[in-house]
Amino acid sequence: MRFGRRRPDETPASGVATDPAPPPGPSAAPGPHAAPTPAPAPIDDEEIALLRASVELVGPLAQDLTVYFYAILFQRHPEVRALFPADMDVQRDRLLRGLLRIVDLVDDPENLVRFCSRLGRDHRKFGTLNGHYPAVGAALLDSLARFAGDAWSARLADVWSRAYGIVSQVMVQAAEEDAAVGPATWKADIVDHRLRGPGIAELTLRPHSHYPFQAGQYASVETPWQPRAWRYYSLANAPREDGSLTFHVRALQGGRVSPALVHHARPGDQLTLGAAQGDMVLSPGKDGDLLCVAGGTGLAPVQALVEQTARDGGRRFVEVFVGARTAGELYGLDDMLRMAQRNHWLKVRGVLSDETVPGWRGSLPEALREFGPFYDHEVYLSGPVDMVTASARVLVRQGVARRNIHYDPFDVPVLEAALLPRRLRAEDEQ
Ligand SMILES: NC(=O)C1=CN([C@@H]2O[C@H](COP(=O)(O)OP(=O)(O)OC[C@H]3O[C@@H](n4cnc5c(N)ncnc54)[C@H](O)[C@@H]3O)[C@@H](O)[C@H]2O)C=CC1
């Protein structure tokens, strides 16, 4: 089934499903504009091709396009500005990344609806109102029109308008459903803060109320030092009885949030969390061997998955590769090795890419090549996007099925977010 094309008995591809919409929650408060209109007409294959072609056309101008988009949005609706951080760089990048991902998934309705639903739920933390969606849609179309130049046409405007309508309906519905069952944000106090390596800190938080998540997921975090500048960090633990949460943070050079968390945050400081999300979770009902590949602070979700496996009784064999550039950055490996000594189901290897230590030298993809094949494993990849891409490629070549490779499009550069899934699909088909 193509996005938007449906038989009469199917759930609408827009995700505006057979269930009646829940009553509007607080997020449905009247905004500057009317709420989104009823289901837009579906989009056919030819129109999907048009959408993609227009994205390729404006792609080289993407940075300017997003600057323009936010400029006209804030000019037309100054009240919306207060929802965004002072520094818009990361936010601009996120809009682009989201758009590219949507266009990438446009012929994959199941994943598109899942992605947009998640986006809608995630937007609750910003205080997004239903009435903001038409304002954003109008600014987006005007920006695309401006940068597409002569290639822009009434037909293209209509296709984009319907595509945006479908996407925003899915987002609004997901946000409303989520509002019916839980808060948009959680306050949490830092109760422990320790340095684990050069510029790497481990923070433990105690949320004021129950924070639901699964091992392997990530949370968005807002600090008091950079209001409304949300960043994603993986949880480094499986759910605990006392409800505490651990995060690993590396202070990024030139960053605004991570250096504050590593160098300034102290026990007693309060952070705000958005809902947990992410697909790097253990699949229920499966009991095959696991392969976890962690690069740098990508160790966090892997540590959580290993903890969860232990809690489930250690019934699955787990092979972990932990990579860092230097031995000093290989934080957390000792704990993992100690755990492996106590548990026969766990095997751990360290890999150093930029330092020569006999037996440890190499990159993570090289190590997978050397110690593989892992074709019957359930695989979890976490770390820098190039590492994730290269590792996935090695594993696909070894015969690992695409569906068994789990990763999150986490903090990845704009184009990678759009290319990675297609690239992997292409590998799969070879
Ligand atoms: N759920 C997830 O996927 C998570 C992802 N991350 C991401 O992981 C990254 C961690 O950053 P750092 O700690 O600074 O890592 P880093 O840059 O120090 O690298 C860590 C490891 O990845 C390898 N690596 C880096 N670039 C590579 C490439 N092009 N090809 C193959 N291997 C490569 C390095 O050799 C090293 O083994 C961040 O981008 C962060 O956003 C972090 C936590 C969770």
Which fold does the CATH topology of the largest domain refer to? Globin-like
Strand content: 15-25%
**Structural domains: how many:** 3
CATH architecture of the largest domain: Orthogonal Bundle
Organism: Streptacidiphilus pinicola
Domain FAD-binding FR-type: 183-283
Catalytic activity: 2 nitric oxide + NADH + 2 O2 = 2 nitrate + NAD(+) + H(+); 2 nitric oxide + NADPH + 2 O2 = 2 nitrate + NADP(+) + H(+)
Family: Belongs to the globin family.
Can you give a write-up of this model?
The protein is an alpha/beta fold. The protein folds into 3 domains: 26-181, Globin-like, CATH 1.10.490; 185-274, Beta Barrel (Elongation Factor Tu (Ef-tu), domain 3); 290-429, Rossmann fold. It has helices at residues 45-58, 62-76, 89-104, 109-122, 132-148, 154-181, 258-264, 299-311, 333-342, 364-371, 385-397, 414-429; strands at residues 185-197, 200-207, 218-222, 231-234, 245-250, 270-274, 290-295, 318-324, 346-352, 378-382, 405-406. The chain has a 6-stranded antiparallel sheet with strand order 4-3-6-1-2-5. A 5-stranded parallel sheet has the order 9-8-7-10-11, with helices on both faces. 1,4-dihydronicotinamide adenine dinucleotide (NAI) is lined by residues 218, 234, 250, 280, 295-298, 300-301, 323-325, 329, 353, 363-365, 382-384, 386-387, 390, 407-408, 410-411.
List keywords for this structure.
alpha/beta; Globin-like; 12 helices; binds 1,4-dihydronicotinamide adenine dinucleotide; 430 residues; 5-stranded parallel beta sheet; 3 domains; Rossmann fold
